[in-house]
Design brief:
With 169 residues, this protein is an alpha+beta fold. Helices cover 32% and strands 24% of the residues.
Length: 169
């Protein structure tokens, strides 16, 4: 996705603690984690413009982070089935001089009723692994989604509209 905005870039893991604070809102947590990721990578790559992002899927007060087991992914998808949930992506852009621009973007996702073959085929694909909410709206998971209200790239994990404006400055 970033290739739509920037010609030359590299991807580097930040290796940070991604836990949320006790009374932290989802939006605040996403932005804090995005900044922590960007600053961690920035320290290793001085002189670079570094973009950090963190995505949380949630419904009500329940958060759906990255999944590691098929059982957990199936349970999450069944819970989201036929319902609307929200996805927030926090973004932080750290410039070489240390200045940081940070923000979050939210989108609503209405899932189709998930049962039978479509759910089984998706589970077999393994695409749910490491995905917030157990699906990838830019891949096979798009077939599970009825509609996205907001920027689809927010759900994928990097909202491009605002990022484009931030990188121009």
């Amino acid at each position: 996705m970033l290739a739509r905005l920037v010609r030359n870039f590299s991807v580097a893991p930040a290796h940070i603690n991604e836990s949320m604070g006790r009374n932290e809102t989802f939006a605040r947590a996403c932005v804090r984690l995005a900044e922590a990721k960007a600053r961690a990578v920035s320290r290793k790559q001085p002189g670079a413009v570094v973009i950090g992002a963190d995505t949380i899927a949630y419904m009500g007060k329940k958060i759906y982070r990255k999944t590691s087991s098929a059982r957990e992914a199936r349970a999450i998808l069944q819970e989201l089935s036929g319902k609307t949930h929200y996805v927030i992506t926090g973004v932080a852009v750290v410039r070489p001089e240390g200045k940081c621009v940070k923000y979050s973007v939210r989108a609503a996702v209405k899932m189709k009723k998930l049962e039978g073959k479509p759910l089984e085929n998706y589970m077999k694909s393994g695409e749910w692994k490491g995905r917030a909410g157990s699906y990838d709206v830019s891949g096979k998971g798009a077939k599970l989604v009825a509609r996205v209200t907001g920027e689809k790239e927010t759900v994928v994990g990097l909202p491009l509209r605002k990022l484009k404006l931030v990188l121009r400055k």
